[in-house]
UniProtKB/TrEMBL annotation, chain A:
Gene3D superfamilies: P-loop containing nucleotide triphosphate hydrolases (3.40.50.300). This is Ras-related protein rab7. It comes from Arabis alpina. It is a lipid-anchor. GO terms for cellular component: endosome membrane; plant-type vacuole membrane.
Automatic annotation (TrEMBL), chain B:
The chain crosses the membrane at residues 124-144. This is TBC1 domain family member 15. It comes from Capsella rubella. One of its GO terms (cellular component) is cytoplasm. GO terms for molecular function: GTPase activator activity. The lineage of its organism: Eukaryota, Viridiplantae, Streptophyta, Embryophyta, Tracheophyta. Residues 373-583 form the Rab-GAP TBC domain.
Amino acid sequence: MPSRRRTLLKVIILGDSGVGKTSLMNQYVNKKFSNQYKATIGADFLTKEVQFEDRLFTLQIWDTAGQERFQSLGVAFYRGADCCVLVYDVNSMKSFDNLNNWREEFLIQASPSDPENFPFVLIGNKVDVDGGNSRVVSEKKAKAWCASKGNIPYFETSAKEGTNVEEAFQCIAKNALKSGEEEELYLPDTIDVGTSNQQRSTGCEC
Amino acid sequence: MSMEASELQDLSDDADYAASQQQGSASMMRCDSGKRSSPSEHDDAELIYLKDNVAIHPTQFASERISGRLKLTKQDSVLFLSWIPYKGQTSNAKLSEKDRSLYTITAVPFTEVRSIRRHTPALGWQYVIVVLTSGLAFPPLYFYNGGVREFLAIVKQHVFLARSAEDANVFLVNDFQSPLQRTLSSLELPSSLPVASGQYPSDGGTSNDNQGRASADVGNRVSSVNQYGLRKQKSHDPTRDLSIHLLEKFSLVTKFARDTTTQLFSENNGFGSIDKRWNNQPVHSYPEKLSNIAEEKHQESPHSYLDNDPFKDEEIANNVDVPDDPLEVNKLSLVWGKPRQPPMGRKEFTAFLDSEGRVVESKALRERVFYGGIEHQLRSEVWPFLLGYYAYDSTYAEREYLRSVKQMEYATLKQQWQSISPEQAKRFTKYRERKGLIDKDVVRTDRAFEYYEGDENLNVNIMRDILLTYSFYNFDLGYCQGMSDYLSPILYVMENESESFWCFVALMERLGPNFNRDQNGMHTQLFALSKLVELLDTPLHNYFKQNDCLNYFFCFRWILIQFKREFEYEKTMQLWEVLWTHYHSEHLHLYVCVAILKRCRSKIMGEQMDFDTLLKFINELSGHIDLESTVRDAEALCICAGENGAASIPPGTPPSLPLDDIMLYPLEDDVL
């Protein structure tokens, strides 16, 4: 039976345009930073193998376009997510203020089975900028927000310098795994979509 | 309902099918819609509901609204929905019979309907959106005389209708799972694709020659497939019927192609490049000086397809049975896709102009650009014509005058935001947000390309100024990511701020809908693409359907910025000037999509890619697509698809101008 267990963990990175979603993903997966990432159009993902307690998992990290106008695409990409990473720029109040929108939009579009307990992780990125002098969102403020949303884990990172990125993603992977295991408890290993569809249509009483 | 009843209900909508069943000759199933009668006309069908003055609005223009009659009928205890546009009552002569019938909904069984969303605003028309289980949606049906509530009440008497727990305006049809789990379907609505049933008048509305008949015949078959998609799972699969039909139609072509090539090879007359393409090996050529700007994004990723040629078919795992390509594209393109000529130079261009500088035959010029592009130094003179900024019949003097007038106009527009003081900006959130977005994007647009590279690059600032000015010029559309990708080559070519701005404005007249807030322009193009694949590669279409890939989001980037991220800089410019000629079609970019997908079809189906894998695969094709052979394939596909291809693309699909606006551009002669 254990051979059928899930090994793919799907993670979605969301946040305003230019907060560093692509950079974080590339820093974590490729250990590289470039000043020349382009604005993400549509969506893309990278994968990385992670190990937990002798089990090997594939972390599939989805990077999406940050402009609100593209949010309607989310439906196709958010489906089946195990963890959602919200990213803001500690030097931009607006990117912090928008976190609520991103969180709600994700819950609406991904419609996870247990929205109350769906794992989010918050990342405040770009702590390196200007030696921290241009920072406008305090750690305290960010932590208060996390507390108000059911104790979301919080990390402050610099994708440019690689600060705290590994730690943040380890937490992300752990949370994704947890949400995956909960699903395993009440979902069968495989879901035959074809069968369930058929049941639905033949169950018609008309 | 029992299993048997369900089997029956699936088939009951097709009289011919039923008849063939009775005769025990199901294999001879016919889908000729000229003969088939819909259940509403059938003797057994019971009319449940009828509503007049229910309309669809294919575009935002009132003159293009199509009114019709909405019906619910019941046959063998299955409820069907149909909407038939009125005949000959249109207020707009431009709206052809074909356009109207494209949207006809002929007897869709409710077993295929996932949900109905109602929209009943206090002001304005009520409408419903019907979403199918396939994930596709019909365009909104506007109830001009009201009555959405009554309509839903009647539906509810015949099928199980449950209100979504998440959205009180969404009604799930035959949803026996937990409504909570199913709310996703309701939320998909804003992004659902509109469906046009693609039924064409059987006379084709065209000539009576054999060609016309053959096309109309294909059209009918396509429509019958669309309307009875449910039966696709059954053993007698109408899509098979269609693909067999297409195979027959195109086998002639393929045979012709084969004969032609054999001849070419035997004559051994220096078709070396064709020889290569014939062997299915795309020719990769990257000029040395441009190789440094090849996608940095794709340097390394663990599951990369880059190691092997993505277009190679040989390494298909698992011995998966890949259905044959009904249209062998490489062979077709040998017949119909013409090889590229060297780019047009100044001498040649001057020959297209009369003594005062008018383009005498714009079509000939566009043809020339289509088949070879333009030498770089000449682009700044020809692009403004292609983009519609210069009129083809303008003289040198008129263009000179236009440039000076437009330069002043640009300065005025630019002043609008330049005069915003820091104090005013504090109270102008929208301005600050737009400027912030633009600032962030220009510094990450093509910075590896020498024209924009380096700190404090002035061209980056000019790009910012133009985009900010555009966001004031078109305040409703504003700025959207992807616009800087379009502007970058234009500025590089024009090397003049005002001229670049006006060329960009002209381009956005056509492609602005790509950036609409509701993403409608993108959805119509993705929808048209799905129709073209269905027409030109039914097995691939079926594969996408089975694998939940029909939304074609994996082609989103291709279409949004017309392959800007897929080719290196110079190649992108070559492609764009070809697309902008609108020589064979305004929508050649969609045929380019089909051409690339067809080149990868064996890989996609052979490796049984799911949506995620497909998206990754498509993203990683970037930098690995051969432009010339792809454009040639696209041309061949476009010619092959002919009228049926054009009919698959709903009117008003970008970059088509909205129909009402065509008169604003009378100088574009035969560009329609």
